[in-house]
Amino acid sequence: MDTAVARGEKIKVLANEAFKSHKYSQAIDLYTQAIELNGQNAVYWANRAFAHTKLEEYGSAIQDATKAIEVDPRYSKGYYRRGAAYLSMGKFKEALKDFQQVKKICPNDPDATKKLKECEKAAMKLKFEEAIAVQHAERRSIADSIDFHSIEVEPQYTGARIEGDIITLNFVKKMLDDFKNQKFLHRRYAYQIVLQTREILRALPSLVDINVTNGNHFTVCGDVHGQGLSQSMNGINKFDVVPELVEAERTAEVAVFDGRNVAEDGVGYVLGFSGLWFFGLLFYDLLNIFELNGLPSEENPYLFNGDFVDRGSFSLEVILTLFAFICMSPSAIYLSRGNHESKSMNKIYGFEGEVKSKLSDAFVELFAEVFCFLPLAHVLNGKVFVVHGGLFSVDGVKLSDIRAIDRFCEPPEEGLMCELLWSDPQPTPGRGPSKRGVGLSFGKDVTKRFLEDNKLGSSEFTAIPVTLPYLLSTYWLFNTHLVLTDLLVRSHEVKDEGYEIEHDGKLITVFSAPNYCDQIWKRDIFGETKKIIEMARKNLEEVQITIENNGDFSEDLMKKEKEHKEVSNEAAASGGLEVFPRCKNLLVSHLIFADDLLICLKANDPIVEIVCKFSKSLLGYLVLKMGNKGAFIRFRAPDMKPNIVTFSAVPHPDVKPMAYANNFLQMFN
Fold first, then answer.
1. Which residue intervals define the domain Serine/threonine specific protein phosphatases in the entry (predicted)?
2. Which pTM was predicted?
């Protein structure tokens, strides 16, 4: 017995290290091994609960924390972990009880006192909102009280303008340019976009059938979570886009494009950009998808499969962009509702706070209403069923049952609508409890029966996952071909590669928010480097910055660093460049030197120090390899082959994720 206890402690130490390295799934596996050796250690259960929370598996977190409390009723962290999971689910009353117990066990703990007060505020606010709530049937639409035509646009406003009632591509492009520069859209035009979208969505059924004509394609994207727009750094004079590279990225399905052929002079082959004092045009996420795959149009239609908002700090810009494209051409873009298109999620995870900060309280209510008009699922050419979450707790659900759902409400906590938005696949057959605490988990037999019952799919096709060349990385991944005859496409879960194929090839999860919630981005590396550039211009003697980083530095990138070192030997000898490629997860993709510039890259796991000495100028591209990749799927009619394209995260302005989240949630993140 003592041997088992000792082994459990050793495994716990390994689990803790995995947790610190943000390897939460690995940590869960290790804590599970420790629990199997000694299930009477409350710490193991509470720690595993914490790891589940990091993966947003709040149902599993609650179960583990409850077990920790059963093992040791005086163990305060058991109540603490369970309370945090309840808060993340919006269950304030349950959370309040747990934090009251934490305070009772640890009366002098200031952290427990602070969290209890925040929880009490949230519970009181919820109670007040319930008291003043109006029955759905009696509620008057906020849209009826808005006349955007009467809102004056100030003369000093220089942003995008809608001329008349028609939203054009020129307007959308101008709006996107403004968003790139972190400018806001005037509320008159924001109202116009949201109100017009409301009318378009309201006319749609709960299940939308989409016909892709022969020879044409259709793109399905997963969660983007407000990680939306691109930003040019200040101080950039110009940039030149190499058309060949952009076109190759846009059209590449199986073609290989080597960026090194574009700019052999070394001026900069980062996405083919060059230019004096160019630091970087930073694309991130939503616009990055459009850069890779083209803007939405009738010839290039998209379906975004829910969870457009929350967590990321550009949710408003993302949703206005998607809505504007719908208004411009309803057949160019389709939207499915996700579990985050709801009041309860928006209140906790940031969208409500962001809208209040950037627009007004009235917009919060308007968006909540329009989200209730979003369809719940789509079917492509009678072959591919697309839904945000997953399938159902009972067999025999037909497409006609989904069409008949009255979706014009907040998502319920059970039933078909809830399960469409919340459920997840599981590797084992049958059904099981949801790791999230809402919906359920379903096996491959459930998927197979649903597709057969609804006669989805008729022809064989192959899926070819591929990675586009990005920045200096021109490494393409080709996976084994899969034969599919019918398909369920869903989102809702972050995946390391941006996608996962499960259930004997009948189910694909696609997730389009790479480096979800900035999992690896611990410091603003681009902001730090910009400071170096600014100091270089001022002819300072020496700058030292420290950058935290995580994860493994891949063999390919180390080879690339070696090539850089070999190329720059002569420059290094004369005070140019010295590279130590042992550094982890940090790629100096390209540097331009001037005269007596000296850059030393020194690695000391897990800290990387960059020391710059210079007299005239410095140009550096620093690219931090992120966490998970993102992906989207291109289908082409008539066979509807899924071509899965994965892409890496790109840097973005120094606005952290969850910046607008509820106060108590920020305390736990």
1. 185-540
2. 0.73
